Fold this sequence. Notes:
Helices cover about 55% and strands about 10% of the residues. The protein contains four helices and two strands, in the order αβαβαα. It has helices at about 5-15, 30-40, 55-65, 65-75; strands at about 25, 45-50. Helix 3 packs across helix 4 (about 65-75). The chain is globular and about 30 Å long. The N and C termini lie far apart (about 40 Å).
Amino acid sequence: MPIMDGITAMKELRKLDIALPPIIALTANAMEKDKYQYVKDGMDDYLPKPVTINSLQKVLVKWLPVQSKMQQKGS
């Protein structure tokens, strides 16, 4: 990102003290320690590149309220 990195942008958004959608780190850093650090820094979740349809679907189902409600009805 040209002006600030994703962690800095997320922290600035969090300062606004408004309702935000989940913030997911999308990164090429794919080590388990990277996931821990992103969540520790304030991200809601983490998705490493390269993104697969399955990994994207898993994160979306986890965080999108509409998906979660639909999934519960189908169970």
